[in-house]
Records
---
Amino acid sequence: MEKHMKNFDPNAAATKDSGIFGLPFSFEESELVLLPVPWDATTSYGGGACRGPAAIFKASKQIDLFDKELGNFFESGIFMLKISSEIQKMNEVAYVAARKIIENEFSSDSTLFSTVNDLSLKLNKYVYEETRELLNQGKKVGLIGGDHSVPFGSIQAHLEKYPNMSVLHIDAHADLRNAFEGFEYSHASIMYNAMTKTNLKKLVQVGVRDFCEEEWHFMKNNKNKIISFFDAEIAEKKLSGHIWSTLCDEILHDMGEEVYISFDIDGLDPRFCPHTGTPVPGGLEYHEVLYLFKKLIRSGRRVIGFDLNEVSLGSTQEASSHVLEPAQEWDANVGARLLYKLCGLILRDTHNKIT
């Protein structure tokens, strides 16, 4: 690492052959490893999240590395693994089967359902095993989706190492549906699965503004484990004179010392993510999220893992395209900047603490 840092100018433009954020580090040299998961088979509205990891990687090279609050945390090393062609192929098969089900108004063809659910299980196993192996090697791990179904295996693996961790879930949706559209591991079911299939003790949701009655009852029946800060209630408090700093204290109050962040980009106001799969009016401001992160760190809590999902260029735009429409590139730009902040939160113990 010292050799690479000696020859690396963090103020210069990123080179074509550099890694994520234009960094020069190898896997062995990096404290943080990013696992890309190109999967959006269960998408129920807009598609394209499977191309999120590639789009974020491309946009990441436009980011200035110095962070006034977190310092030069990148010096600890950040490395993004190669996007798996096997997962891409699995996603293509599962996506076609899922579309046939949805377009035929939830076809009763059991073979199609089995295809989607079996491949989803295979994906979960892949993410779990990859994450567990990285954690066993002493790496810190961040996951880049993909739709919001993909981090189930990551949450499982992190719980094995950090059994008392809390999940901070930023999202427009509660994601507490049971097998949405017949898909057991739907993007709309990630937190239901986390609460019913793992030993997760605390889930804190922020920005939720789209949920069904079934989810509402699930929240109420699990109020000792699930705390939801609904977007409408947050907005009402802000409009009534409450300050965001105080609301952040309320959000963090019941969280443990070790925090895993699960971030669906549609938790933001849609102007920051216009091409995400299921945008909903309202949502958090970009700087509100960053301030919440700052308050989390100031509170003495530690970020031990994260995932970032649902960054999309739209259903047809390829991330590898040399020419992107500015409106499409915007989603990846915002996603890359959020990813860099998340990297800083997890690496901050070895560099300047937040001010």
Note: The chain has one domain: 2-350.
---
Amino acid sequence: MAEILMSIKILPAEAGIDLDHIKEEIKNSLPGEVKLYKMVEDPIAFGLVALIAHVIIPEENPKVMDDLEDALKSIKGIGETQVIGMSRLG
């Protein structure tokens, strides 16, 4: 069973939002088939910091990407998400 490593840029709704809280919300709201590989902060400008979430999803279930997107959009404090990379693992 092949997996996909997907990198998602997550922009907060505004500068100054508690990123630790958003990180916890992301971890707690991931759909069951999605595994969090790592999450890093990416400073943009003027105090705005994006999060880059690297997640592993199963290749066989394309619906899981929609479920992941819906889960991220439901988190208060997230303004925008963008897939910035995908790589097939094994």
Note: The mean pLDDT is 93.
---
Amino acid sequence: MTVTKKELEELVSWVRSSSRRVRVRFRGYRYTVVIGRYVEAADPSGRIVPWITAFGSRAPHDVLSTLPVEEVLVEEGGVFRTFASVEELLAYAGIKRART
């Protein structure tokens, strides 16, 4: 599944609109992508680390498109929702239509 730069920008706007927080975990990879006010990288303990340390020179939309997603966790007002893919998250956020 490919995530475009525009879709990522819309996702960041959606997250900011209601004080949500998104954490994307990757299968077999140590670091996660955290989307809150910014798109950031975090280590396994949840601490923010430099993007270059976690993902090198890859752009955020490229990381979301190429690494195998294990889990997407969305926190909305104390309620947690889990998705199996970024595509499901984009559909939930109304950014991209769900595949049928």
Note: The beta strands are 21-26, 32-35, 39-42, 48-49, 69-76, 79-83.
